[in-house]
Amino acid sequence: MAELYLRHAHPKDDCRDVISSDADTHEPAFDTIQYLSSHGLVVQPSLPHVIYACAQPETISYEELRTLLRKGSQFFSLVGAALM
Predict the structure, then answer these.
(1) Contact 33/61 with Cβ under 8 angstroms?
(2) What is the pLDDT of residues 19-59, one digit of tens each?
(3) Which of 27, 36, 45, 69 has the fewest C-beta atoms under 10 angstroms from its C-beta?
(4) Is 55 within 8 Å of 45 (Cβ atoms)?
(5) Can you give the pTM of this predicted structure?
(6) Mind spelling out the 3-state secondary structure of 51-83?
(7) Whole-number Å distance between alpha carbons of 57 and 9
(8) In sequence order, which residues have a C-beta less than 8 Å from that of residue 21 and are 6 or more positions away?
(9) Domain regions of the chain by residue span
(10) Phi and psi at residue 64, to the nearest 5°
């Protein structure tokens, strides 16, 4: 989810060190909070309150999310229902 967040996020220059990938592993260096909204899956980095302004929520549309899911999974069906 953190990688998906990074595809959509455009952090300000002073936030790039907070919302970035680990230099050694190239994996996102943060956990995420996720919840469903009427527009898609909302993903937001889970960060300390002091730097929370660097972590704006990003909404991943159900159309995009569906391309990442296995057909036949329960979540695939849920996302399909949201598209109707």
Answers:
(1) no
(2) 665 556 556 667 788 898 989 999 888 877 666 677 788 99
(3) 27
(4) yes
(5) 0.65
(6) HHHHCCCEEEEHHHHHCCCCCCCHHHHHHHHHH
(7) 8
(8) 6, 27, 28, 29
(9) 2-83
(10) -70, -40
